[in-house]
Every structure is written in C-alpha cells, then in structure tokens.
Amino acid sequence: MKLWAGRFSKEVDKRTNDFNSSISTDSRMYRYDITGSMAHASMLAAKGIISAEDGKKITDALADIMADIDEGRLLIDPNAEDIHTFIEQTLTERIGDAGKRLHTGRSRNDQVALDIRLYLRDECGEVIKELNELIDTLSAKGDAYGDAIMPGYTHLQKAQPITFKAHLTAYTEMLKRDVGRVEDAAKRMNYSPLGSGALAGTTYPIDRAMTAEALGFDGYTLSTLDGVSDRDFCIELASALSLIMVHLSRLSEEIVLWSSWEFKFIELDDAFSTGSSIMPQKKNPDIPELVRGKSGRVFGDLMTLLTVMKGLPLAYNKDMQEDKDAIFDAFDTVKICLTTLIPMIDTMKVLPENMRKAAAGGFINATDCADYLVSKGLPFRDAYKATGEVVAACIKAGKTLETFSIDEYKQICDKFDEGVYEAIKLENCVKRRGM
Question: Residues 6 or more apart from 334 whose CB is under 8 A from it?
Fold first, then answer.
C-alpha cells in the first residue's frame, strides 16, 4: 500500500509506478534512512509525542531491519516506491501499529533531504581520503626521483628545465585545493532539515536540536521551506567533484603523453595497461584515457543538477528526485577514478634518463643564457636579442648552447666568456630556481 493512499479511488497504473519509483537509486541510502528514523523516533518518545514503549519498539525493530539488510536476510523489494516506503512498511509488518507512529511529525520531503545529507557526508569523507592518498602517492613518486631533470612546457613546447618532483608538486597543490573545496561544501551541508515537514514544519512539539545533535549535525536549517527544497549542497559538491575530474584529466593527459614512444618519460605497469586485438606491440594507457573520458560524465552530472533546480518554485517538487542519480553518479565516478589511478601511479616506472635527454634539446636554458648576459651588465632586452641570435646560429649549425664554441658566442656578443657554460648547465638552471 502506498504511504499516500486514502485520497485516491483508483489503483495507480503500473507505468506510473515504474516512472515514479526511485528504489533502484535510493536503496543505497537504507542505512541513513534507518539511522534518521531511529533519531526521529527517539525524539518523539522523549517529547511524549509517542509512548516510550512504542519508541523503543520502533528503534529496536529498525536496528534489526538494518542488520537483516546488512547480512542479506532481508532483500529490498525492487517494486517498492522508494527506500522510505520499504523501510516503514517492513517496520509496520514486524511491530504493527507502533510502526505506523514513526512518521508522526515528519514528511518524506524532510526525510529524503535528511537521508541524502547523511549519505553525502560519508561520501565526502571517502573522496577526501582517496584524494589524500593520491597526494601521498604523487609526493612519494616525486621524492623518489627528486633530482630527475625534465623539460617544462608551455604551449606543449619545451620551455625551461624543471624537476620531475616540481611537475608532480603542481598536481598535489591542485588536489589539496580539491580537498579544501569538498571539506567546505560538506561543512555547509551539515545542517539537519529534519522537522521541516512537507514545507511548513509541524504542529507537534518536536525538538529539532535534539535530532540534529543525535545525527552529528552542526545545527538545523532555519527555514523549513529551504530545508526541504535546498539542493545547493548537491550542486556545490558536484562542482567540487567536477574540478577534481579536471585535475585528474590533466594529469591523465600527461601520463598518456609521457608513456608514448615520442616522450617515454614513464612506463606503466603491465597490470595497469592493455593491449591491442591486432597489433601485438601495443601497450595502451587505457586507465588515464578513461579518466579523461569520465570527466565529461561528471561535468554532465553537474549540468543535470543545475538544470533540474534552475526553475523550481518553493518548496519541494518531484523534479528533485533526479538529484540522486546525478550526485551519486558523480561520487561513484570520482571514487573509481581515484582508486584506479593511485595504484597505477604508484607502480609506474619513471625513466629519468629519457627526461634528461629530452631536456638537453630545445634550448630550454636560453633564458639562463640571457640572464648570464644581464649579470655582465647588458640590459635584458639586449641580452634577450643576443641570445635569440645565438639560438638561431645553433639551429643553423646543428649545435646546442652547450656545444656552441666560445668564439662563436663572442662573435654575437663580446660579453660572453667561459662562465656561460656553467650558467647554462641544466642542473645549475634548476638549482638556481629552487626547483
């Protein structure tokens, strides 16, 4: 029987049931639904709204239901309208009229708003844990190859020499900001909507502070209309997750490039690579490629949430049922990307000799050459011009700055002397910049 039966004289069409059902999505929230109901029942009993005996029957039976689902003794009915209906009907089947008193002073509107906040709060903790593990993995890999010199790029053109550690540190800084964004969003989300009712609260003398404290919230939502209709926290979290995917996608793009024969800065472990069905020589970086692709999926989840919410009048509207598919998918996608990238990066082989060889070409120490002339008293723009002429002459002669003779240097600018070779040595270039 529907929780809202009584007003209607006809059975609901099966197509309406199927279209209206959210059990396939929200069943994952059963523990949070039960936890919230236990706090609500305890509050009702404490305030004398239901008897202490009924309150205990309800909380004990709910604990049993949770254990039965956890252990597989109770299967969630896929034909139920939603997880809230399934739990309440199971409760009533087990303890009779006492179970029917659970929903006193509560609506499914504030119930689902509570469940999703409780669920996402734990999801935030999981993502933060994985982000910190990725930060540690990147840091450890950078420390292991702290002196490895590689070319830094702008416009995907060799620019200046840097260390492999410095390159990875850029990503750990991005990920630290990601941790902060998730933490900030989770903090703003951590207010209980329970007690908002359908939209206008309740006439029962409930204690919202009691349930908020019991469930670990920092307080409760001050506006009951906002309490049931707010999904800002879903949008904010989806935005934070989208930025995480931007950063994971950028890192993945680098890994795809670095593992190619054209770069060969790294080699992925066989356990985290795939082959070709026709080309036996291939070793494909499927994991980072999939991460790049899955970033668009999370961006789409964010756009879904923004679109769902943009035109809704207060308070609750059925459109908001779509929030869970989007935000759950965003979290699921980010978590699987993180848990797969971490061991892939941990096991990848770094090839510092190839990095150093790549850094030796492309005149990435040209700025240091110009800076050397500045140290000799030449204005920077004149030093820049002279160094540009040196580079042009090297290209024409098939030489590098290191193999250009001092006589050739002096033909372009008489400020050059033997000290230029120490100035343009890649290790010194990196060291002077503190890389």
Answer: 127, 241, 244, 245, 248, 298
150: left (phi over 0), alpha (psi -120 to 50) or beta: beta
Give the count of beta carbons closer than 10 Å to the beta carbon of residue 35: 20
Q: How many other CB atoms sit within 10 Å of the CB of residue 101?
A: 20
Q: 154: phi > 0 → left, psi -120 to 50 → alpha, else beta; which?
A: beta
Give the distance from CA 288 to its chain's centroid: 15
Answer whether 428's CB lies under 8 Å from 422's CB. Answer: yes
Q: d(Cα 175, Cα 169) in Å, to the nearest integer?
A: 10
Q: Do 120 and 327 meet the contact criterion of CB atoms below 8 Å apart? A: yes
Average pLDDT of the residues in 428-433:
90
Closest CA to 432 of 380, 372, 356: 372
pTM: 0.91
Residues 331 and 241: beta-carbon distance below 8 Å: yes
Q: Is 49 helix (H, G, I), strand (E, B) or coil?
A: coil
347-395 pLDDT, tens per residue?
999 999 999 999 988 899 999 999 999 999 999 999 999 999 999 999 9
Could you tell me which residues come within 8 angstroms of residue 50 by beta carbon, excluding any fewer than 6 positions away?
A: 41, 44, 58, 98, 101, 104
DSSP-derived 3-state class of residue 191:
coil
Which residues have a catalytic role annotated?
A: 155, 276
d(CA 329, CA 325): 6
Where are the strands (E) in 304-346, listed by range?
Answer: none
Question: How many other CB atoms are there within 10 angstroms of residue 272's CB atom?
Answer: 18
